[in-house]
Amino acid sequence: MFEEDRPRPLLEVRGITKQFAGVQALKGVDLQVLPGEVHCVMGQNGAGKSTLIKMLSGVHQPDGGEIRWEGKEISLPGPTAALDLGIATMYQELDVVDGLSVAENIFLGHEHASGGVLHVKKANAIAHKLLKRLGHGSLSPSTEVGTLSAANKQIVSMARALSRDTKMIIMDEPSAILDSGEVANLFRVVRELTAQGIAVVYISHRLEEIRQIGDRISVIKDGRSTANGLSVTDTSRAELIRLMTGRDVENVFPDRQPIAADAPVVLDVDNVELFGHFEKVSFTVRAGEILGFAGLVGSKRSEILETIYGARRASSGKVSVNGKTLRPGSVTSAVKAGMGLSPEERKSQGLILDEPLFKNVTLSTFERFAHGGYLNERAERNAAREQIAALELRPADPDRPARTLSGGNQQKILLARWLVHGTPVLLLDEPTRGVDVGARAEIYALIRKLAAAGTAIIVVSSEIEEVLGLADNVLVIDDGKVLTQTNASDIDEHGVLDLVMKGSAA
Amino acid sequence: MSEQNTKEAEPRVNAPADHSTPKANPLQNFLRGSGGRSLGLVIALALLFVVGAITSGDRFLNLENFLTIFRYASIIGVISIGVTFVITAGGIDLSVGSVMGLATVVASLTAVQLAATQSHWILMVLVALAVGAGAGLINGLVIAYGNVVAFIATLAMLVGARGFAELISGRSTQIVTNRDFLQIMRADFLGVPILIWIFVLVAVAGWFLLNRTTFGRRTIAIGGNLEASRLAGIKVKRHLVYLYILAGVAAGIAGVMMLGRTTAGTSTHGLLYELDAIAAVVVGGTLLIGGRGTIMGTVLGVLIFSTLTNVFIQNNLDTSVQALAKGLIIVVAVLLQQRFAARGPRRAKAKPIRA
User: For a FRET experiment, which of A226, A322, A494, B196 has its CA 20 to 30 Å from that of B52?
Assistant: First the structure.
């Protein structure tokens, strides 16, 4: 469009392609990054963003197309080559070493030393300067990184990039692990970097965020570029969604259905309390009702959920399902009574990643398919197949390792697990974390369908919009206290934030 | 609407199913899976046989010698099967050798032998199994409910059981005098010594238990992801206790076999057996971090080591050279496995579906 007026691009990617074991991951991706800009790369899960990042950081090599750096065609045979050129990558799973200090992490791989002896003081001094440049002079270079929050670890990761005379930093969903206050801080740091002429390639699928931080946007869909270098201010949200999904998303949240007046109370939480975490909470959930927990990160929403489930042992209070009181601190008792949890961390708490899909689906129920301890894998597979069809799980192969599925489909495995079990109570902790826009709508529809079938559901999410859009009733929680309990349609995002702000001010 | 959504949203996720589904090519699939890993071990074993045949000729290549190899493998083999379960669940048991020694000592105590003579030789067997089960129970309780790391808990048992065995035996060797017991343990069935039959039975039972039962499923699930298993409602702690009891019982069985073979109970029985067992299990292809276990692999691993020993003895080679070769085999086997694994299920890691 008006690229003639712009400075020479720092990075130019033209039509790169990549194949993995017969699967075309990238079919032709272009990207142009200018010095000092925040260039957002958007795309759904599976679109090829990660593959692209790995090409640029030298982890994988493209099969075709070209990468130009400061006008010259380059090849990146390995991560060191990329670092040497000035391309740093900040992965989602932060690659800091917990046992080392901040300064040691910053200079990891290029330590200040002579004859193998480290110059600790000098390193600390330089590290301090770098941290200061990032507006975090208060972070002590000698602190052990393991004691830092995820947000501060990111800062360390960025300081490391700076220490290497970096010209471009690729950030892979940096906000995924941060709460909203920390995100604001991250943006400040990003601005700091770009003001110094460093280009930032920012990967995210949070539309709001990109509007705040991005200068230009490129969109990838199914391994192909669908938009290149669009101006953030001139592109509407609807347009971006269309570019990412190839269709229009209007209403992601399904319509609420009225709960029958005589719907029985299925889950009764009575004065449950966990010292040091949250104060007494009491509520009931009726058959067909979706109850949402709204609150910021750190509000102890997940802790409440886990305590109800018995994964943590309540200090006092009792939980009953269909009138049956559960043994406190016993997950087995909760599961037996008909409660299912889809945990916050899908991969580390929910799935056995290298086991096939069907065994993950039947993880809570395989004993039912056994006779006298002898497993009936065929019956298990069939039960899993039924759920695969009902939930439209892709790929529909019960023998595929869970690891190879996308976030949305992994989430469906967990739903399928409890559907096979037939639990009347479902606890869903962050059911759409790491799930892309299209698959989200599907999961929302599924959750609503389950409720319509009479399941009592609790949804916990750090996205207030999601809780309010999905739930019938809402508990607003802050710092282990229930601030209010209300109908979801009587409160909006501002209302929730207002309450939380007031709560923490008091 | 949602049908269309999925198709539009995730065709790339859909696509690989046609290309790289494990069913794509049965042979490839077999080679990539546990079959392939076992095949590597079979090849290694065959190579050892070739070396044995070349260097020792008929002295190596005869039925009597093969039975010797198997008999030599049988005791450590039974222990290794128990250890396979613990390792598959992501644990470790360093105490099996000591526990086996303790079992031989307790079962051959004068009082026990006297009681056995007055009643039935099976009493000695039961005592040995009970000692194994008891030690395993303690291991399991300390690990599962005391939250002590398995390495440390079983290390403590390794030291403690050995000490206890020395204490009650007065460091002396206790001769087994029960004729019935010795007769049974030295008997042949279909020309094959009873020790080998016990090994075969334990291996078959172990294979069935690990691959075909809810017990095995729980074991693999816990090893694959302990937290996910717990949150799915599996009684993880209880199962861990069962697993260590199982390993203890296997050590008890090995103790009975040892008593039969050596006709003596002593606290020095089973010295360093835990390391041989772990080596066999790992060489066999069971993941030390848990989540994948193979009884077949363990059996082959044990046979490789016992064949190696046999070949060395036949050639009058130094035991030090033998130890060196053992070390090399462990490293090479694990390196090869990692190669296989990288091409096998692990490949998924390198091929991100997620973007």
Answer: B196
Assess B235–A contact: CB distance below 8 Å, yes or no.
Answer: yes
Q: pLDDT tens, A20-32?
A: 766 778 889 999 9
A281 and A221 share one domain: no
How far apart, in Å, are the Cα atoms of A434 and each of A207, B4, B289, B354?
Answer: 14, 21, 27, 9
- Please state, in angstroms and as integers, the Cα–Cα distance from residue B158 to each residue in A211, B53, B290, following that order: 62, 38, 22
HSE of A240 in the Cβ direction (CA atoms, 13 Å)? 26
Chain A contact for B28 (CB, 8 A cutoff) = no
Per the CB < 8 A criterion, the answer to whether A296 and A182 are in contact is: no
What residue of A is the nearest CA neighbor of B10?
A46
Q: Please indicate, yes or no, if residue A253 is contained in any of the structural domains.
A: no
Same domain, A90 and A150: yes
CATH of B33-57+73-344, one of 2.60.40, 3.40.50, 1.10.3470, 2.115.10: 1.10.3470
Residues of A in contact with B233 (CB under 8 A): 331-332, 334-336, 364
**Domain check: are A241 and A274 in the same one?**
no
Q: Which two tokens stand for residue A218?
A: 């490129």
Residue of B nearest to A42 (CA): B355
Task: Tell whether B319 is within 8 A of chain A (Cβ).
Answer: no
Taking 50 as the pLDDT cut, the residues of chain A under it are 1-3, 249-250, 505-506
Q: Are residues A188 and A120 in the same domain?
A: yes
Domain that holds residue A172: 3-245
Would you say residue B248 has pLDDT above 60? Answer: yes
Judge whether B309 and B72 are in contact, CB under 8 Å.
yes
Number of compact structural domains in chain A: 2
Complex ipTM > 0.95: no
What residue type is assigned to position A416 of the chain? Answer: A
CB contact under 8 A, B14 and A407: no
Cβ distance A348 to B233 less than 8 Å, yes or no, reads no
